[in-house]
Amino acid sequence: MTTAIRTGNRRARKVDFDLPPKNALPSRRGKIAGLIALIAAAVYFLGPVYWLVVASTKNNRDLTSTFGFWFAEWNLGANYDSLMSWTQGMFWRWVGNSIFYSVTAGVVGTLFAIMAGYAIAKFSFPGKKVAVAIIMAGLLMPVALLTVPLYLEFHALGLVDTVWAIIIPSAVSPFGVFLGMVYAQSVPTELLEAARIDGAGELRIFFTIVMRLLAPAMVTIFLFIFVATWNNFLLPLLMVSSQELKPVTLGLFGMMSYFSPNKGAVMLGALLGVLPLIILFFTLQRYLRSGLAAGAVKG
Amino acid sequence: MTLTTPPTVAAAAATARATSPTRKGRGRRGGARREALTGWAFMAPFSVLFIVVFVIPIAVSIRASMFSEVPSGEGLYGGGELVEAFVGFDNFAIAIANETFWAGMGRVVLYAIVQIPIMTIAALGLALLLDSFIVRRPGVFRLSFFLPYAIPGVIAAMMWLYLYTPEVSPFMQYLPEGTDFMAPGTILLSMANMTTWTYTGYNMLIFLAALQAAPRDLYEAARIDGASGWQIAIKIKVPLVRGAALLAVLLSIIGTIQLFNEPTVMESQNPWMGKGYTPMMLTYNSLLGAVSPSGTGMASAYSLLMAVIAGGLAIVYAVLQRRKGGNS
Questions:
Q1: CATH 1.10.3720.10 assigned to B98-327
Q2: What ipTM, to 2 d.p.?
Q3: Total-model pTM
């Protein structure tokens, strides 16, 4: 190929390395058809999000009367004001709650999951097989069905309408343990043995060696728990009733169903409510992909 | 650590427990006990929370499903204090006889039969396209397909609700007169579209990961043998992602049985759907007392019944797939 000529251009060279030999490339017609399919799919997936951005800048009248996929009179400020007044100034509190629940559940859940995964991968102890089987069964458990009995349990414990009612259930991630187990297998046993011979305690080994080696895996687990907590709707719907404790999903749903709302304001709320998640997602998406890869290959 | 036992015993112990990677040089019985203790110590925090969040609720719901809240009977309207009474399997009998429950179950099963194949095939198709060097930089497409997954289900449902509302929707004016996305005959498909929109990219990433884990030499070898791109996709790549597809479909079945967010949002603007449109809505609303029969006992009975049905469907699906795989 032409690598020799292009060596000055690093970008072109890198691409060439990824490509198969010329005869393995798709035919011209196949390529065009494939490209059309990909672009159509991109329009389907991105179109609604783009519309959400446009709609959040319009007032109710322009929403119905102007072309949907382009901007009309700029009404973002008024929509923001009406979002604030309709949520009685609680909107940013709700976003803050979502961040708080997701971060807390994510940090605690990740630590516990990686500890359990490490124990399963690197220690032998009685009852291990049973524990693994139960955790894997939990992976397939329809979690929504647990929410009703969970409510009964937390009601009896007096934890309903507290932050614990959201954080404790969200911090338990069988998938996190599964990922932790897969990744912890890659920790070299010799390294652990060497540390033991040097007299390091188990806790010290875990916190200084294992956690450092598994840091990327922990980011992955954290992301999965964070996203699941942020997206959960049924759990806060059952567990939380005070306005001060609502996450943003629940708050927006209440806003949509109780008022005959300014739709542009609802759209703006939806947009602002998912923005933190989208930013996190795209800065850390390679970790999500590595987690999915581990699940796909082992599953 | 000091070794007090003869090396042969240590070696025997090591082979006996060859499964444990940490066994090396730790033949002592005390070492084994210490290892067991350490293992459980690391397991403990997760185990405690797991028991609180998974095990106890199951026990609680089994107990609650056997009880019913009945008035003690002194009041004027048969009222008075509500007391719990043991009713055995009565709640299950009522749930099984409840037409609303089975109508809802029928809806989610229909939903699953339509939505899961469409989503899985679309995800697989997109993964194959991105894996076939049609575009040099698949990253942009990958990200845009995956973006909807970052949007919480409720918020996505609210957005689609507006997209389906004729006055607000940006595209409905271009559709034939009388198109109604929220009529009794179409609303299930409209909700299936929401789920497809949210989860196709996620499933596509799973397939893409499985495809990219396969050795590239495999494709090259097939090329040299004269296979076309299409043949490679169907005969080599699709079988490669079979395991991932099985898991994705299984998780989708389990997810669909508990369908709640989308119908709840839709119902808020389309009250004709009723509070028991899907089994999960029925369960939630019977706990709240918004449908009759209600109460914790009924809600628990519905939950358990759904868990059994979901588990049954998942097992049937897994067995069918395995048998099919064994024959071919």
A1: yes
A2: 0.84
A3: 0.84
